[in-house]
Amino acid sequence: MSSVNDTKFNSVVFLLTGIPGQEDIHFWISIPFCLMYVISIVGNSIILFIIKTDPTLHEPMYIFLSMLAVTDLGLSISTIPTTLGIFLFNSREISLDACFLFFIHSLSYIESSVLLLMAIDRFVAISNPLRYASILTPPRIARMGLFFVLRSVALNIPLPFLLKRFRYCRANVLSHSYCLHQEVMKMACSDITVNSIYGLSIKVLMVGLDSLLIFLSYVMILKTVLSVASRAESLRALNTCVSHLCAVLLFYTPEIGLSVIHRFGNSSSHFLQILLGYVYLLVPPLMNPIVYSVKSKHLRARIIRMFIKSRVNLSPDSNAARGLVG
């Protein structure tokens, strides 16, 4: 622990944090964490498998949903080693180079972009349904997806280089089980003005701009829906947006809250930082496949059919019948 308290040495590693004060029960806390990770990975994998194998789901809405599922899988897989390492093996150390990779930032910005694309998809589907398929063609969707992925990666590339300029001589204990740029830069004993301005700029450019465009998309959707004479048709159109609205709230609420607390919060908000950190990490990948499976009638039907088919194939009676036929 002397390395943690020494303020005059150049830190070799950072120490990740589980839930402070609960170290004795970290193993038991790991059980629900493992369960959430398993549900997230299995749920998103099932959605990807069904969309890929069912030609009737090769529509723009489901293509965007598959993009969201891939991003959620990336978020879950990239944080499993550090999070479960802390709770199961008390493995808290992470090297500077590993901490500076910031996969979580790139993936989060990609998810923000995918949610914007899904908002555009809902706007086109409601405002111009007859040209929906001709506007959102697969090549156009691929180009939009590639642009947003490259945008997210390109804007995050400078972060490790900006941080490597510093000498880290302060307490090197992080607040979460993963590394965040806005927290790591505060560990430096140098002027972090450039990092702070750049980090805040890309946050505003990515999350701020995406959320603003999503808001404007829904303003236009409401304007279109309210112009429809039939109330039943209006409700039916708005019902197609419920899943996306849930995904937006699940992602942006902890994302914005965590960023604000880290930049402008004080020591009294430490527990809130930890809580929002785990919500930000675990809840969107966990809930997105559940929400879309519940709200999408076609997707729900395919999932139910897949499980029924699996049960029939695994049942002893069906295996016996196959043996008799053979």
From TrEMBL:
It is a multi-pass membrane protein. Residues 43-292 form the G-protein coupled receptors family 1 profile domain. Pfam families: 7tm_4. CDD domains: 7tmA_OR51-like. It is found in: Cell membrane; Membrane. GO terms for biological process: cellular response to lipid. SMART domains: 7TM_GPCR_Srsx. One of its GO terms (molecular function) is olfactory receptor activity. Keywords: Cell membrane, G-protein coupled receptor, Membrane, Olfaction, Receptor, Sensory transduction, Transducer, Transmembrane, Transmembrane helix. One of its GO terms (cellular component) is plasma membrane. The keyword Transmembrane applies. The chain crosses the membrane at residues 25-51, 63-88, 100-120, 141-163, 200-222, 234-252, 272-292. Belongs to the G-protein coupled receptor 1 family. This is Olfactory receptor.
